[in-house]
# Entry
Amino acid sequence: MSIGHFVPWPAVRRTCLRQLGERGLFCFLQNGQSTLYYAFPVFSSLSELPYSDQSNSMHQPLPIPALPDYAANIRLSRKNQRLSLEQLSQLSGVSKATLSQIETGKANPTLSTLWQIAHALHLEFEELLRDPEEGNRYFEVNRGNQITSVAVPECGTVFRAISPISMAEDLEFYQVTQEPHCVHQSPPHRAGTEELIAVLKGSIIVTAGENSAELHRGDFLAFAADLMHTIKTISAEPAEFQMVVRFAR
# Structure
């Protein structure tokens, strides 16, 4: 509380004379010919001042919580339901390219887009906005009786799709056998796609664009598959190799 009458602060020059206990100062104030006495509270630091910039938390920005990992939830739910990007695209009406970008965190979907995806996956909307629980992390088994084979008779090649359908056009894993002297020709995949080949039996020649390599048992090759490429068996026995197609995201 102050003693005396009010004097506007700009007109006041104060000189503190002595303390009054732990929470006050008794100050000598001058304004022209007037002598006034005020009691002021004592603060140990500027942060204690009730109207200081440091303590006025009303004007301090509140911390923004991390964005929920909806991308992981979409990907996890899609894979648990054994859906490919193409299948989810058909169910949701969201393009495959957009879905791929959303799942990899390269796109910020609108509320409407997330609503379409949640409906297609039979999820409540808030389920997309929950942090994935440790026990619900992706874990998918593809049994041997679920593996499909695709034969290409004209080139004597059989592809066994080891990876599940949910990984189609994301990362595909094949066990391939090819008859002697047969050639498998593949058109370019989308830009940035790679193929990885590990030879288990026999010998093959892989050509991609202007590059070519002869591979034998135990050899490995990685190459850009976004251009025309061929695989030819050059051994007298059938060749057997593993192939991984890693699509660009």
Notes: The two ends are 69 Å apart (CA to CA). The chain has three domains: 2-59, 70-136, 144-246. Residues 70-136 form a domain with the 434 Repressor (Amino-terminal Domain) fold (CATH 1.10.260.40).
